[in-house]
Amino acid sequence: MQIEKIDGRRFFYSFYAGAIRLLEHQQEINKLNVFPVPDADTGTNLASTFRSIMDAIHPVRSYKMTTSLIAEAALTGARGNSGIIFAQFLSGIDQETCNCQNITIKDFAFSVKNSIKYLYEAIADPVEGTMLTVIREWAEYIQHNYHLGDFRTLITRSYDVALRSLEATSQKMKELTSTAVVDAGAKGFVVFLEGVVDLLRKDDIRPLARMKKPLVVDEPLDVEMEHGGELTYRYCTEVLLKGENIDRSRLEKMLEDEGDSIVVAGTPSMVRIHVHTDRPDEVIDRLRPYGRLVFQKADDMLLQYRVAHERKHSIALVTDSACDLPEEYLEAHQITMVPIYLYMDENQYLDRVTIRPKRFYEIIQEESPVLTTSQPNIKSFVNLYSRLVSHYDSVIAVHLSSALSGTFRTSLQAALQVAKETGKKITVLDSKGLSGMFGLVVKRVAEAIDQGATHEEITARFDRWVEKARVYAVAGSMKQLMRSGRVGNLKGWVARLLHLRPMVTIDREGKAINTGMAFSQKKGLKKIIRVLARDEAFRRSGEYMVLHANVPEEAKALGREIQKFTGREPEGYYSISPVLGLHLGAGTMGVAFMES
After folding, report:
1. 521-558: per-residue pLDDT in tens?
2. 506, 509, 511, 515: CA torsion to nearest 10
3. 520 lies in which domain range?
4. Which end of the chain is more exposed for a tag (fewer CB within 10 A), N or C?
5. pTM, whole model, 2 decimals?
């Protein structure tokens, strides 16, 4: 029996069948990944994109409503270059679809063909011999053969066309010709079509209707790449932007100055952006005037490559962005840093990645936005641990004090899940500290790994390191403490009136406590110096660091004063992360040390 029209429900289950087939083949697609960079994640990114759609939609009778639901979910949840390209294809189909309950083959064919222009408009530098080519040639076949009169016959034959187009990609692009593989994104599209064709042949949606949503996590990338290619830029950066009358062509032109592999997909009210760049913070800052920054992601492709091919040790070390160690140290020791989310008004940022300290303080000074923070979600930790255990024997994660943030608990929950599924050892530890105090504990773990200590030896020593770490600080802004909710309005108002600055330290339970007040920042720092001069633990300290919130010269002056009575220079002068500066304010200064 011929299928001359399809409604939203049939389209939904056809899409579902294709998505499930792709989920089953994501590792196979990962192994083909050469273009635009050989980072072995195209299958994972497509799978994540499809799962986001499947989680967000449900079957309805209206064809137009179904395409709209799929398009919006795709743009919201798209991941990676290939995922965003496919999301734009789905968005184009929706924009070219009539407002109908059922769609004819002819109308379907023209909506598919007309969606191709949206693909080429979204990509700054379209490259043939990729997913783009295969989708275009498949769509052209659909348009030229809608007269067949039967969806089952048309889609089945179009699959053969897409398969031949896929095989030809290995000869159309030099990166693929030299490695004798087909394009990974194109392979993903063909695998998706394969699932659709199988459902049409069986013509039975009952198994899919009874199936629970496949909420599996990203599979680990157990891949040893032998393909060519190199990283031109370091960060794979993605942004979801919402606003009114967003000019995508203008955005695309602006991004050409920031990197490559640019895709700007979506509609005038919602745009999904993908770009490879060395400065994701600059990209985000330039996007701010165009709309609300709803979502951001910035994966360090260089670190991912080194973890896969140049890892130094068998134990992976993970921390979060409240650990105030310099980027150079994290990179040298291959430490994975998970950014805490920071919100300014309705805009989301990734602490220390898409918002740097200097720019953060400029914005809060100029605009006085509403500031909040949020811990990384469990999915980000699950994906991270799944990837790391495919390359390391075990993982140790050290986080900001659990008394100050839920990051530790979320990380622990994800670690237990991945450890149970993989059998790998993942230990999540509470630093009971913040800023430099936290950073010094992470340094001890990194040094122990460098020296060849076992996983068990490190976890056995950990509590002693935590007990020996200290921090003393003078908050730079009572106004910021009040705005963050850390000080009551009346108490804060009185303190501001008297120009008081709270002195803060961290107790043995990892809680922030007020150790007194100073009538000015200068007097507060003198108090810190007196405390350190009398502190026997500080005199026995192996190293100390000076911390500051956007006042580097004042921090150096503090370091010189401490050096006068210790005879030792600080280990470094470090800017505290924006998520801590959010609560303590610009001008905050402190000293962290580790007792020998």
Report:
1. 778 888 888 888 888 888 777 789 999 999 999 999 99
2. -50
3. 469-595
4. N
5. 0.80
